[in-house]
Write a structure and sequence with these properties.
The chain has a seven-stranded mixed sheet with strand order 3-2-1-4-5-9-8, with helices on both faces. Strands 6-7 form a two-stranded antiparallel sheet. It has six helices and nine strands; from the N terminus they run ααβαβαββαβββαββ. 36% of the residues lie in helices and 29% in strands. Helix 1 runs parallel beside helix 4. It is α/β, with parallel strands linked by helices.
């Protein structure tokens, strides 16, 4: 699929710059840390960070006591994650075809990675999340809020990229989640007055 190839190549290109951009980001984002803490408190077993990038969220979850591993489409990102966090597990993979066994994890974290998945493929990804989650498992999705798709042609450090960024309304994503067999437990809005607000949905299988 073209969008998969474009996303992989784009994040391979910006991997080093992106890692520098997010390295200390959590220290200035208390509400993001709070969301991760809620997730960590609810997960009873292993978890997977899907679209983990350089592994900063994965590492934070482990600091919170979660047995978390990471999956990312970009080999460049996974190489960085492995070098930065050699004690943790990271694998190259796609959220539309996760190489995980059925009911093998208690939690799935998807922070700002579903934003690159086209509408037609979102139900496929959600189906994968449900498949790998145990009964009662937790899913948390962070995303940009809006009603449009933006083509990103330049990324971190000024490097070329070609990825679509899909901005979505929480109610729309919540409907997809319910249709995929999830129960939506909570919705958080972040930076609601920003040009591009953000949101986090908490759901359970």
């Amino acid at each position: 699929m073209t969008w998969l190839a474009d996303t992989r190549t784009s994040y391979d290109t910006v991997a080093e710059s992106y890692a520098g951009f997010v390295r200390n980001a959590l220290s200035t984002q208390p509400y993001m840390r709070a969301a991760l803490s809620v997730f960590a408190a609810q997960v009873d077993g292993p978890a997977v960070d899907v679209g983990c990038g350089p592994g900063h969220f994965t590492a934070h979850l482990n600091e919170l006591g979660v047995d978390a591993s990471g999956v990312d489409l970009s080999p460049g990102m996974i190489d960085l994650a492995r070098r930065t966090h050699p004690e943790l597990r990271f694998e190259v993979g796609s959220m539309t075809d996760l190489a995980l066994s059925d009911a093998s994890v208690a939690g799935v974290l998807v922070f700002w990675s579903l934003i690159h998945v086209p509408d037609a493929e979102v139900p496929v990804a959600l189906g994968q999340f449900r498949r790998v989650l145990r009964r009662g498992g937790r899913l948390v999705i962070g995303f940009h809020v809006g009603d449009e798709t933006r083509l990103k042609t330049e990324g971190y450090g000024g490097h070329p990229m070609r990825v679509n960024v899909h901005l979505r309304q929480p109610a729309h994503l919540a409907r997809w989640l319910r249709n995929a067999g999830f129960k939506v437990d909570a919705e958080w809005r972040l930076s609601p007055e920003a040009e591009v607000p953000q949101a986090i949905l908490f759901a359970s299988r």
